[in-house]
Design a protein that fits this description.
23% of the residues lie in helices and 26% in strands. The protein is of the alpha+beta class and 300 residues long. It has one domain: Double-stranded beta-helix (4-Layer Sandwich). It has a seven-stranded mixed sheet with strand order 1-2-3-13-5-15-4, covered by helices on one side. A three-stranded antiparallel sheet has the order 12-6-14. Strands 8-7-11 form a three-stranded antiparallel sheet. The longest helix is centred in the last third of the chain and has 15 residues.
């Protein structure tokens, strides 16, 4: 029988950001969760948006099993790896700088250059018709320095807008595509099949959380156009909103330890990876819960 432990969810910065990012103790993610544990995790995510679990020695199968206890998974279709080059199953995203033999990718490797898009502020899978709900990232091997992940609270960012801006944002629809985000980095070497796969999808700029009712900005580097607004004006507005939403008072920076598992709610956060020595290994696995419905169905 699984031992009963006391569950605690405590804000990481109780003074500066008391309602954003928390550490969880008293839950072992490697085994079957109880209903109480599942409910506690969902409640913690609704409140804090980002949850940190330390010392969770998860293998791939254990991570997938844990994730499925929280909801249905999406498949890892957001990279440009050929099927024969994948290191992990389609239930997991390979967030690493390694090839299938465990060797560090060359600095100019096409797969690595595409993956640098993770260093731009984004929300996972906003480029899919049905975007991501939770992301769960397990740190298997981390570099000696750098490689942190930053998270921005899009609820607080929305709340800080003035009333006129909130009214202007209320019904706007953005177009999201990895073609936009990678284009920001100067990466545009896509095949015709990749361009078809990455066709822009529609997402709301403001969305309401189905449990808490809170409104948040839904931004990402993948957003490159706004319906009904000329392209230059739309991109200037998206840039301004991103600069607003990523001010330091809205951001939690996670310094990774090996075997951390960090969860975040893509509906209320943006995130980005930070730079590290490209010759060192950074090996992580991400499982991702689907939101099940389009943001267009979550009317503000």
């Amino acid at each position: 029988m699984k031992p009963i432990m006391s569950i605690a969810i405590e804000p990481i910065d109780a003074i500066g950001r008391p309602s954003f990012a928390a550490e969880v103790s008293g839950i072992d993610l490697t085994g079957r969760l109880t209903d109480v544990e599942v409910n506690a995790i969902h409640a913690g995510m609704d409140q804090f948006g980002v949850l940190v679990f330390h010392d969770q020695h998860l293998g791939d199968e254990e991570q997938v099993a844990f994730s499925r206890q929280l909801g249905p998974l999406e498949q890892a279709t957001g990279d440009i790896h050929a099927p024969e080059d994948r290191r992990v199953s389609m239930d997991l995203n390979d967030i690493s700088n390694l090839d299938k033999y465990g060797e560090v990718l060359a600095r100019d490797d096409r797969r690595r250059l595409f993956g640098l898009g993770n260093m731009l502020w984004h929300s996972d899978s906003s480029f899919k018709d049905v975007p991501a709900k939770y992301s769960l990232l397990s740190a298997r091997n981390i570099p000696t320095a750098g490689g942190n992940t930053e998270f921005a609270d899009m609820r607080a960012a929305y709340d800080a807008l003035d009333d006129a801006m909130k009214r202007e944002m209320q019904d706007l629809i953005c177009l999201h595509s990895q073609l936009y985000s990678r284009g920001l980095l100067g990466f545009d070497e896509f095949t015709a099949a990749e361009r078809k796969k990455m066709a822009p999808v529609r997402q709301r700029l403001v969305r309401r959380h189905p449990k808490t009712g809170r409104l948040s900005l839904y931004l990402a580097s993948h957003a490159g156009a706004i319906e009904g607004i000329p392209m230059p004006e739309a991109r200037a507005l998206l840039r301004d909103l991103t600069e607003h939403a990523t001010q330091r008072q809205f951001v939690y920076a996670h310094v990774w330890r090996q075997w951390d598992l960090v969860m975040w709610d893509n509906r209320v956060t943006m995130h980005r990876a930070c730079r590290y020595n490209p010759l060192e290994v950074r090996d992580m696995r991400r499982s991702t819960l689907t939101n099940e419905v389009s943001s267009l169905q979550q009317v503000p």
